[in-house]
Design brief:
Transferase(Phosphotransferase), domain 1; 14 helices; Methylamine Dehydrogenase, Chain H
Length: about 800
């Protein structure tokens, strides 16, 4: 293998990338921090050892493996942005792979920094995230072959598996040089991989070695040389884990011995099954608790679901094919499970979270599927693959419901204040949870957008708790907005990697990398030097389930023939939307403006409320477009109700918003002054009308001339993830109200045609001023409220 000096690359370019400095190096090559001048961002470049330019077999293999690695789209797999090769010295070339860069370190560094064993729950969390990534890769016929802590990159508690494809590439050069029987890291290699016959269960074995190391502080096999370590993997049983950690439960030791079985077929059927067995053996939390998409913020309660899960496993097992050894076994099993569960196949649209590349890394891939073979993953809520994993030729079901139980709340209770967020210095206007319930994004009149890590402090809360104050956000972006940054002007992509931000009346749409700390913003705008008018945008909504498509409201050009009021953009095009939506076909239309744009649960429809120059809310209509065709599919007429004359004043904005039910494409809740009206969109039918007769929101402000006609005004509504409950908050009130769509008719209290709430909370450790909005976490466990008092409160609303 050709050697070269790192210094020769300092300050040079590789492709279009400017190399800044060396980050790390090892047997698998070097990692450099680089600048991408085209997209104006920092990236990591993995430079592999140089090879002869005449080695066409290697170069073709590199291109194949790089493309295969780039096709892996999963929240816990590091994204491949680009790849290529560049000439080097002595008729050689250097191949390279481009990935995101964040200096979060690796699991290897986390283990070293602890100077002891990591907390058990933290270790199980990392193992679960890695297991989900590995199992997903196996459904794509990809074997990693170098699963080890150094290839598990961390950003806080988020894990990404890196270096897919590299071990197999280096195996090519090893085969040619005959220097080693197999590529990989000897301490983590399975016996069959040492002998040159890697299978999916080989990755499982490597994950088992990592688990052994996390729970004992040692790897089970470590010889005085590489060859001796490999021979130990093949011939020697692992030492009992309790010999190194006497506090380890015997059941955990038994699971570790099972996963380190010499024969692949004797190991658990999949990586996630192995982690489930571990969690059950520890008896600390259920296997469902270990789902990183449920997060440490809201662990699921398995005891209430045990019988249901057992029944699901039995039903799925009925569709399990007999033992298969052909290359199509995994695909067949996935298809059969899909049919049994009646879950549509979903082509994952994930890009992994950005992460650092530090230290030594390697890896390996299996050949891509033959033409005509589909590659599927079942991905819900930005989570992970559901599949039947083939391990050592033995198929076994991976039950989706066991890892992703139904969203909550499972047992709704009045909220108890858990966290007080104090980073804003003026009124906070909006809060949005990321799809995994890890982070909360907030905006305010101080022109700031703040990102809060909720999962980490929540992981330390158990049993009885009192409200804690968090004053330092994880990330922050500062703007110079005309009117602050209000409601509906921020949103997360499905994979939580990006945030779209649209300050009111801004001529630019901003997209930020969620965890990138340098404040970099990607700008999207139609503004050009010779344009006849300057665009003005407002409202932002990322398309449900998408990582690259979002919608914004656009103030129309009044003189135009076609009043464009909303636009759909993609990340790949910063100067032009992919689709423009209109309220009407001419400038004389009654409705000229749009507000409150939202995507339906599956991203099929986009809705917004048309607003004319007349601020009377009785003139409003909610418009629903087909997100693919841009055609209007429904116009919902608002009911004729009592309305607040205060809203007619030019200095008071009309509270207009709508929110789709998370469990269907036909149910939409609309704020109509003091009421939340729930519609069946396809039939233009009112299903529910919710409101309150509580005195506090109905008390007028200190404006005596409006006392006679004053009615309450809803500032915001939020659906529970299970689609059962609707939460709302009012002007002149610091509390949260909750309505139940499944409440028995005989138990409903109806006043003035409005169904009254089933509960309210917020008097204890709540806000000191009126609420401005609220958001229900995707796992159903928590509600976040924003307020004029410049704070955000996270409330626990699920007793399960």
């Amino acid at each position: 293998m050709i050697q070269y000096s790192s210094q020769r690359w300092q300050g040079k370019t590789m492709g279009r990338y400017q190399l800044l400095h060396l980050v790390g190096k090892g047997g698998m090559g070097e990692v450099w921090l680089a600048e991408d001048p085209q997209l104006r961002r920092q990236v990591a470049i993995k430079m592999l050892p140089p090879v002869l330019a005449a080695d066409t077999y290697y170069l073709q293999s590199f291109e194949h493996e790089a493309r295969t690695a780039a096709a892996l789209e999963h929240p816990h797999i590091l994204t491949v942005h680009d790849f290529g090769f560049t000439p080097a010295e002595d008729n050689s070339v250097v191949t390279y792979i481009v990935t995101p860069y964040i200096d979060g370190g690796s699991l290897r560094e986390r283990i070293k920094a602890e100077q002891g064993l990591l907390p058990t729950e933290e270790s199980l969390n990392y193992l679960t995230q890695a297991a989900l990534a590995i199992d997903y890769a196996h459904t794509q016929r990809v074997i990693h072959r170098d699963i080890k802590p150094g290839n598990m990159l961390l950003q806080q508690r988020w894990l990404l598996l890196s270096d897919f494809g590299i071990a197999k590439l280096l195996q090519t050069t090893i085969d040619q040089s005959q220097t080693n029987p197999a590529a990989g890291t000897p301490e983590y290699m399975a016996p069959e991989q040492v002998q040159g016959h890697a299978v999916p269960a080989s990755d499982l074995y490597s994950l088992g070695i990592i688990a052994y190391q996390l729970f004992t502080g040692k790897v089970p096999f470590k010889g005085s040389s590489v060859l001796e370590t490999m021979m130990l993997q093949i011939t020697t049983a692992p030492p009992p884990a309790r010999a190194f950690n006497a506090h380890l439960p015997e059941q955990v030791e038994a699971v570790l011995l099972q996963v380190l079985a010499k024969q692949p077929e004797q190991r658990p059927a999949s990586c996630i099954e192995f982690v489930n067995l571990l969690s059950q053996a520890w008896n600390i939390r259920s296997s469902d608790d270990l789902d990183p998409d449920a997060t440490v913020l809201a662990p699921w309660n398995k005891r209430k679901q045990q019988a249901q899960l057992l029944q699901q496993e039995q039903q799925a097992a009925a569709f399990l094919p007999q033992q298969q050894s052909d290359e199509h076994a995994s695909e067949t099993a996935v298809n059969q499970y899909e049919q049994s569960a009646n879950i549509p196949g979903y082509d994952p649209n994930f890009a992994a979270q950005p992460i650092s590349m530090t230290g030594e890394t390697e890896v390996e891939l299996e050949p891509a599927p033959k033409k005509g073979t589909s590659r599927r993953a079942f991905i819900i809520g930005g989570a992970a693959a559901v599949a039947v994993i083939v391990a050592g030729g033995v198929s076994a079901p991976f039950i989706w419901k066991a890892i992703h139980p139904a969203p909550g709340p499972q047992e709704l209770v009045p909220g108890k204040a858990m966290f007080l967020l104090t980073g804003h210095n003026r009124a906070v206007q909006d809060a949005v949870w990321d799809p995994q319930s890890l982070y909360l994004l907030t905006t305010g009149d101080d022109d700031s957008v703040l990102l809060w890590d909720i999962a980490t402090p929540a992981s330390k809360v158990s049993g009885k708790f009192s409200r804690q104050t968090i004053s330092t956000p994880t990330n922050k972006w500062k703007f110079q907005a005309e009117s602050g940054i209000g409601g509906n002007e921020i949103d997360f992509s499905a994979d939580s990697k990006h945030v779209v931000i649209v300050p009111l009346f801004s001529d630019t749409i901003y997209v930020a990398d969620t965890l990138q700390q340098d404040g970099t913003l990607h700008k999207y705008t139609e503004k050009t030097p010779d344009a006849p008018s300057i665009p003005q945008y407002d409202n932002a909504a990322w398309r449900s389930g998408s990582n690259d498509t979002f919608a914004v409201m656009k103030f129309p050009d009044i003189g135009a023939n076609d009043l464009v009021c909303a636009e759909i953009w993609r990340l790949s095009n910063t100067s032009k939307p992919v689709k423009q939506l209109s309220l009407a076909a001419n400038a004389n239309a009654q409705y000229k403006y749009l507000s409150g744009i939202r995507w339906s649960a599956k991203g099929k429809y986009l809705s917004g409320t048309g607003n004319s120059s007349n601020p009377d809310p009785r003139t409003l209509k909610t418009i629903v477009w087909d997100g693919d065709t841009g055609q209007i599919v429904a116009k919902l007429s608002w009911p004729k109700r009592t309305w607040n004359p205060l809203l007619m004043q030019s200095n008071v904005s009309v509270p207009v918003d709508c929110l789709w039910s998370p469990i269907g494409e036909d149910t939409l809740a609309i704020i109509d002054a003091d009421a939340a009206i729930v519609y069946n969109v396809l039939h233009n039918k009112v299903l529910f009308s919710f409101g309150t007769d509580d005195k506090r929101p109905h008390n007028p402000p200190n404006l005596s001339k409006y006392k006679k006609n004053w009615v309450a005004v809803l500032n915001g509504v939020a659906w529970s993830p299970n689609g059962r409950y609707l939460a709302g908050c009012y002007t002149n009130d610091d509390r949260v109200y909750i309505w139940d769509t499944q409440q028995e008719s005989s138990k409903r209290r109806v006043v003035g045609g409005l169904i009254m709430p089933i509960m309210q909370f917020g008097d204890v450790q709540g806000h000191t001023m009126s609420t401005t909005g609220l958001a229900w976490s995707p796992d159903g466990k928590y509600i976040a409220t924003t307020s004029y008092d410049s704070t955000v409160i996270v409330w626990k609303v699920d007793a399960a």
